[in-house]
Amino acid sequence: MSHAPSARPHFANTETPPWWQDGRNLALLAAAGFSLKAIFVKLAYAAGPVDAITLLALRMLLALPAFIWLVYKAGGTRLSSGDWLGMLLLGLVGYYLSSLFDFIGLQTISAGLERLILFTYPTLVLLMEAVWRRKPIGARVWLGMGLTYLGLLAAFWHDLIHTQASLAVLIGAGWVFLSSLSYSVYYLGTGRYVQRVGAMRLAGLSGSLACGFVLAHFAATRPLASLAQLAPAIWGWSLAMALFSTVLPIWLAARAVAALGASKAAAMGTIGPVLTIVFGWFILSEPFSWAQLLGLALVLGGVSWISRSKQ
């Protein structure tokens, strides 16, 4: 006598994935990792005398094996000479200059203001595209930009009223704005190569080449023996930065994009400035003010408005 197969329902396609495979959680973890970068930089500066290029060299030296692993893991066909030139330029502008300017700026401004300035890169990308393609910008987008930069002014005012060195805050903010500008150029450049090279391979190659630029800069301007003279805590915070704010979030972000798509993963990243400001309050004991919260709300609102206006 034959038996009919069990009528148990099959939930393979409807089950909620484990939390470590959920794209939303991966994107949030990536945003948290990137947000901790400014915190680790601040902690390293507080741990002992160290300058921006030395700290950046430590970060890139410790992250280099992971960038190489990304290249190996991604695989791919042989690149043309034009592709290699593109990777060199992206590494120079995106990971080297952008990171260097950022580290210099963090010497004199709060982690919260730094993250808000960096978060304005979508507005810079939009302006660059408008100039390059001679495409006019709509009124809704201008409104979003106005909200964004009004928020930056509020956050900038927060730093000014909580420090005695107003000029230092101005200069530091200028360095971080240059970092955001450099990253915007990098972001535009990735659009040309990401389809041909692949996102993971592009990140690994440009990151590895940037490590070469940073280490060459360090070797040309600092004695190698100076690394041995750094406080152990500086090495520790640099290692934490390399692992939790460089390698891990890049890997998590790549997985999040694969699971959610680029637009949804990027939308989850808008939590980044909030996390950096909260981390700054609790870990660095950075001062709180309503001006900072107002700046945060305006920047997040402005960037979100611009994103919706472009859709």
UniProtKB/TrEMBL annotation:
Entry GO CC: plasma membrane
Keyword DNA-binding: no
EamA domain sequence ranges: 26-154, 171-307
Keywords: Cell membrane, Membrane, Transmembrane, Transmembrane helix
Entry's transmembrane regions: 26-46, 52-72, 84-104, 116-132, 139-158, 164-188, 200-220, 232-253, 265-284, 290-307
Topology class, membrane: Multi-pass membrane protein
Short name of any one Pfam family annotated for the protein: EamA
Main location: membrane
Annotated compartments: Cell membrane
Gene3D superfamilies on file: 1.10.3730.20
PANTHER family: EAMA DOMAIN-CONTAINING PROTEIN, OS03G0707200 PROTEIN-RELATED
Protein name: Threonine/homoserine efflux transporter RhtA
Organism: Chitinimonas taiwanensis DSM 18899
